[in-house]
Amino acid sequence: MRILVFGAGSLGTLVGGLLASVHDVTLVARDPHAARVSAAGLDVVGAESAHVSPAATTTETGHSADLALVTVKSFDTAAAADALADCDVDAVLSLQNGLTEETLVSRLDAPVLAGTATYGARLVEPGRVECTGVGRVVLGALDGGPDALAERVGKAFRAAGLNTLVATDMPRRRWEKLAVNAGINAVTALSRVENGALAGDDAGELAHRAARETARVARLERVSLPNRVAREAVDRVVEKTAANRSSMLQDVAAEKRTEVDAINGAVVDIAAEHGFEVPTNRTLAALLRAWERGAGLR
Length: 298
Ligand SMILES: NC(=O)C1=CN([C@@H]2O[C@H](COP(=O)(O)OP(=O)(O)OC[C@H]3O[C@@H](n4cnc5c(N)ncnc54)[C@H](O)[C@@H]3O)[C@@H](O)[C@H]2O)C=CC1
Ligand SMILES: CC(C)(CO)C(=O)C(=O)O
Description:
Bound molecules: 1,4-dihydronicotinamide adenine dinucleotide, ketopantoate
CATH architecture of the largest domain: 3-Layer(aba) Sandwich
Number of strands: 14
Helix content: 40-55%
Largest sheet: 8 strands, mixed
Distance between the termini: 38 Å
CATH superfamily of the largest domain: NAD(P)-binding Rossmann-like Domain
Oligomer: single chain
Number of domains: 2
């Protein structure tokens, strides 16, 4: 399969690097990473290891591929979609956190699959990516149900050794992941604690409240996600990733823009479309956006 990875930073470089052992992969990245991969190949280290030689470029348009993987941060999704609109790609798959697929659908003609990834990835230096945890890629039709394209993509991922599930219930999975991220990411980023600190703490109750609101909005969107399931998903992730610093905490610690718009912000916006108020998500989003403005990031 000819696969274009649009936005090869940490996750895109890891997934693209693993796919490159079997497939014809092009990484669209920034220099010096792109130049280094072109000149000397890519080292995958950590929980997975490989030396591979995908193509790498900073050129964003004019590519042709069977599949474009979108792995930019959520706030770069619209720009990525506009660049992909000037490429010839047969299908698009997002592995980002937050609700980003809708932005891709609104700007692209190619079919868009929904995806989530729980692999951990860190770009250590140009040309070198660390797999910090073997997780799973879950992908499928955006609206749910069986899908031949998703099956083909899943088969291609598995052929490259990626732990991959093709799911027929992506709407529920996306919203459950959103509920987990809406609760854990914002609260850990604002209180500067590891995920495990939420267990049995008042801050954990705040995370539950954000997740329950998210589940309510999911149901307004006709996605079946009971409050109890969202709350239990938060507890499960807090327990399994107790030592993790959430991606949003890492962004705040590094003084980088966060993905709050596509997580808590998306919950607020979609709730508003239904005339529904989500005060916890609204508060969390307002605080993070205020911090971003204060840090000159937006
Ligand atoms: N890193 C991880 O372990 C995981 C990340 N994710 C999600 O995956 C997404 C990406 O996350 P990371 O890889 O950590 O972020 P990252 O910031 O390391 O990678 C994004 C990359 O896209 C590049 N980029 C943006 N616009 C571009 C353009 N126009 N042309 C070329 N390159 C461009 C940036 O330079 C950056 O290197 C996020 O939504 C994140 O939440 C999900 C699961 C795990
Ligand atoms: C699941 C969780 C909360 C793990 O830290 C995550 O997805 C993130 O940090 O973005």
